[in-house]
């Protein structure tokens, strides 16, 4: 069942990073949670994606999906930005992202947007 969104709802931007092979699964999960859907339903699954190079060094107690403990890892990742109408949608999208993302600690941020 589609989530109904209101144009009056507070807008949020969810930005996350994921390894390229996992991006489509992550996007499908957040879209199913209502992210990327504009009021009225005329536009759904809206996002912006760019591919770049990420890096990280897993610590001693990490269980990395990619790379090895203690070794600096460079990997191709995508940055995805999506709008969420309403705090409830933003929160549901983050839960969905964490479930779908292959990393122990997904890198993401949520920003409240102002309407001018």
TrEMBL record:
Keywords noted in UniProt: Signal
Xref: InterPro entries: DUF34/NIF3_sf (IPR036069), N-reg_PII/ATP_PRibTrfase_C (IPR015867)
This protein's record includes keyword Signal: yes
Signal peptide: 1-25
PANTHER family on file: NGG1P INTERACTING FACTOR NIF3 (PTHR41774:SF1), PTHR41774
Protein name: ATP phosphoribosyltransferase
Organism: Venustampulla echinocandica
């Amino acid at each position: 069942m589609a989530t109904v969104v209101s144009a009056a709802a507070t807008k949020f931007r969810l930005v996350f990073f994921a390894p390229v092979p996992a991006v489509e699964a992550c996007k499908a999960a957040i879209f199913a949670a209502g992210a990327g859907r504009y009021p009225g339903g005329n536009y759904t699954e809206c996002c912006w994606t760019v591919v770049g190079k990420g890096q990280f060094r897993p610590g001693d107690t990490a269980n990395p999906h990619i790379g090895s403990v203690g070794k600096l890892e460079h990997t191709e990742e995508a940055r995805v930005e999506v709008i969420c109408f309403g705090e409830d949608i933003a929160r549901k999208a983050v839960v969905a992202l964490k479930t779908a993302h292959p990393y122990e600690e997904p890198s993401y941020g949520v920003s409240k947007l102002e309407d001018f």
